[in-house]
Write a structure and sequence with these properties.
- About 30% of the residues lie in helices and about 25% in strands.
- Strands 5-4-3-6-2-1-7-8 form an eight-stranded mixed β-sheet, with helices on one face. It has a six-stranded mixed β-sheet with strand order 18-28-24-23-22-21.
- Strand 4 and strand 5 form a beta hairpin.
Length: about 625
Amino acid sequence: MLVKVLSAQLANMIAAGEVVERPSSVAKELCENSIDAGATAVTVDITGGGLKKLTVTDNGCGLHPDDMETAFLRHATSKISSPSDLDSILTLGFRGEALASIAAVANVTMVSKMDGADGKLVSVSGGKILRSEPIGCPVGTTVTVENLFFNTPARMKFLKKDYTEAGYIEEAVRKLSLAHPEISFRFVSDGKEKIFTPGDGNLKSAAYAIYGKEVSGALVPLDYTDEAYGAKISGLIGNITLYKKNRSLQSFYVNNRCIVNRTLTLALEEAFKGMIPIGCFPAAILKVEISPSLVDVNVHPAKLEVKFFEENKIYSAVYWAVKNALSVKTVPVIDVAEKPQESTAAMPSYTKPLSGSFVGAGSVKDSGGSREYNYKYAFGKPEKENVKIYEEITKADFSAPQKPLEEKAEQKAENTSPLLAEESKIRKETSTAADTEFVQTAMIDSGDSYKIIGQLFNTYILIEEGENLVLIDQHAAHERLIYERLVTEQKNKKIVPQMLLSPETVRLSPTEFQTALENLDFFAEIGWELEEFGANTVAVRGVPYVISKEQVKDTLIEIIGNLRDGKQETRTAKEDRILYTIACRSAVKGHDKLTLPEIEELVRQVKNSGKTITCPHGRPVTTAVTKAFIEKMFKRN
């Protein structure tokens, strides 16, 4: 076997296969060079999906004319000079492969000028310099790439249609513009401007330019520092109303480098678990600032992936950063001012959250002046009516005189949901008129009030509160309340089985029976007392207090199924799934007719809980319709 050294041209073409995957790779590499050059404005202009022509222009520091030809040599860089520099990389490019790799598979022309020096033009094709001459030009650099992959036709067959490749370039520019809101990015495809960011340094402004009003309006700020690990987490995340079936609204950055990292993705999505629907993904522009010595950016040819030192610590930092940002409760509000509805035939499905993450502080007094509400705010102070709604729903202590429509106070405990029955502390009053319509008013000690209107479709509880009609999904609300209580008791090891008067025997399939026997200790921890009772049969002697005897068999079989399906899950994730199941099974259902005391108690608990944003599966618990919207439907304004 003959061993020989590859020619420089062939070596560059092989390197291009790693660095230059498609036109978007070229755009990314050239834009990163512009960012490293200190540019405040970068324009990307393409024709034919970037294959025919791709031009990147910046107003950065430019190159000295003596260095321009050297810049096209492989491993030529101004960004590192010794092995120790690899431990403190803060620039986006550093290996000196980009220009050499691009020039090996395309026709490249670079025009550049440094302040105080002459401008110069260098033209390279297939790795060979064709022209090198002085030229008049402004300070900065323009690189034009034409006929990409002209000498590697095999690569062409793996590319998509022009509009698809243009989409990849647009996505690359989007991610870079979100990483650097201080730089004004402009993207033009076949003469049409697709992106233009203001470059004012405000990430919210850049997000508005990239995603538009609807998405950017649902983004809330992220600001968290893990002093022990030395990581700062910042950026924007979507509130619980903003999610998609894919991860297209997620961008991750480490020291302003756009990257892909499974640890960051898992931490983000775990923090949103139970707050958005299963199978959906939250929006995030998540930025990590960390010492370069704690992260390796040199593990991928195109620098797309990074590796952290002590991955568990960065996971924890991101998880708690997101959790803290989501800690404020918001109620989706249908507001006619957001999108006018001309037809009264149907209610529109769009929603608008109340003021986002509330970072900052302030206070407002109620109309009676007897109580001061403290609140936090994000982008300017929220409207007073929004503050009022937010504070009343999340913090007020409600006590309500009762006036039932029907006298069902003597209903037996077994017909009342266990959680409501246990915690119900209701003052009863006798109605003076037997046929009086149910109108329930609960007064806040400040003088403000809300009014329980009743139950709609035996599924939703309606409340009049200020200028809003508030709807509560009774199943979602009760499910969340039970789940949060079980989680607390599980953490404190206080889920004690409620012993059944007579054991419930449950016959299982052989695999289910085996799973049950393998997890007897686990069942005990979550409030179930099981024992073997003959062939493929278990006897259930105790269950969590929220489970009725009628629910024992179906709930047990569902839990066993979850244990079998989640064999690869962590113990914490497994426990969460089981508690979801118990909460869902034991909560009141949609179409269950509730008694007046049950409605009152459920509303009280929702009002007093700060964690009833969504059910454990991510469906919203509460939403609201504004008075203005209702009046619009009836043509009253």
